[in-house]
Amino acid sequence: MLARLAELPLLVVLLGLCGILGLVPALYAFGVSNHELARDFLYSALILTVISVMLGIATAAYAPRDPARSHLAALVLAYAVLPFALALPLAEALPDTTLTNAWFEMISAFTTTGASVYAPDRLADPVHLWRATVGWFGGFLTLLAAYAILAPLNLGGTEVSSGRVPGRGGIGRALIARTADPALRLTRFAFMLFPVYLSLTVLLWCALLILGETGISALIHAMGTLSTSGITGQTPFSASAAGFPGEVLVFICFVFAITRRALPGVRLAENRRPLLQDPELRLAALILLIVTLLLFLRHWSIAAQSDTTGPQSALASIWGFLFTAASFLTTTGYASANWQTAVGWSGIDTPGFVLLGLAIIGGGTATAAGGVKLLRVYALLRHGERELEKIIHPNSIGRGGAEARQLRRQGAQFAWVFFMLFATTIAAVSALLLIAGVGFEQTIVLAIGALTTTGQLAELGAAEPVLYGDLSDPVKVILGIAMVVGRLETLALLALILPGRGRR
């Protein structure tokens, strides 16, 4: 049975899973006696399931010539098509909404961006649960795609460590062709990753429940944390009943968005080395330490103008800086309850620009986080370090062995190419938003928020919060497409569009 499902087109399987996921808010709505919403989600789930079954029967004999690249194309189509299917129950639950708003809400959740056009109190808890479920599913799909689709093609950041041309499988692709069918690879990694992903979500959910959150709020926050979507319900995370202990637990879970090696039970070759030696984890710790210390120590340069003093405020500020910085570095987007205290302590007028920079750096490769990715930044730093060393000592030999030299050379080259593509994409999206009538500051924040999948930057990144609901439909469409580009990365899209170039 599972083998037959694995042979179906990936897009069909994902559509069927979307139908099954609709049962989650349906059951919850039924449990809280909201029978109208339960009916809406149940009927939508049945419609999507029936359509997926019919498509599965129609495409049962489909056999692509290049399965690896076919799965990459299916992944792109999934982000293009599935948000419309996911918007069906949302449109039924909110009959006064527009198709554009429903689509934007779902593509934002599915790409783990977490931007919302609706005020929290407008949506019932089952609808909030649907948003969180879609974001949670999108986070798992991101993990699965990173391991089973992008890694064999040297995409998603793996090109930095492998040193092979992005979009060209090289040794990895030859291995797949000879020893493992891509469909079986997807199945194997799905069964490897899903129990871990689900278990971590359930554990965090139970822990937040124990700390005082309501069942639905704890579940939404747990889903938003593990998927890095940062989705919340009617109560924002900063006002969570779990308080400081809840923030500590969520902070610990950020490690899963910093390094893929932190996932328990996932058998990777690099897991044999100590976790503390992971370059992404060490770089993230260094970045968080520097940002926290600089913002904290800035207090004494503006102490005469600051009203925030005392050891209690100092400790609250340190934690506010540390938690929020880690949250935006992993592109989750949760703000600490002490964030405003931290901002007052530092006296900084534009704290949002710090969060913008952290979101651009992003989390680890093969995680649910967005942004440029820590491994690429690490490769550029090591390359810069080596170039400075050659200036001082022209005849010196690089240390670290063949792996380190590869990272500093080919890895840094690929990282620089991606960084330039990322910067170009920001410029292109910003230009489109300016043409659509958005102000300059809002344009920068919205473009970076969409491309790094950190939709919460609209609230905290600008001097004045930007409301997605106030944006025009063309702007929402531009941002929705930008979210997909940021989620898939430009290298993956270029590898799909220009396969011949990748082979050369």
Keywords:
504 residues, mainly alpha, 23 helices, 67% helix
What report would you give on this structure?
The chain contains 23 helices and no strands. By secondary structure, it is mainly alpha-helical. Helix 6 (99-110) packs across helix 7 and helix 19 runs parallel beside helix 21. Mean pLDDT is 88; it is low at 170-179.
Short description:
With 504 residues, the chain is mainly alpha-helical.
Overall structural class, as computed from helix and strand content, comes to mainly alpha
Q: Helicity level, as a percent range?
A: 55-70%
| Largest sheet entry | none
Shape: globular
Q: How many individual helices?
A: 23
What are the secondary-structure elements, in order, as H or E? HHHHHHHHHHHHHHHHHHHHHHH
What is the first-to-last residue Cα distance?
A: 40 Å
Radius of gyration, in angstroms, nearest whole number:
23 Å
Instruction: Tell me the strand percentage band.
Output: under 5%
Low-confidence stretches: 170-179
Tally the beta strands. 0
Assembly state (oligomeric): single chain
The overall pLDDT average reads 88
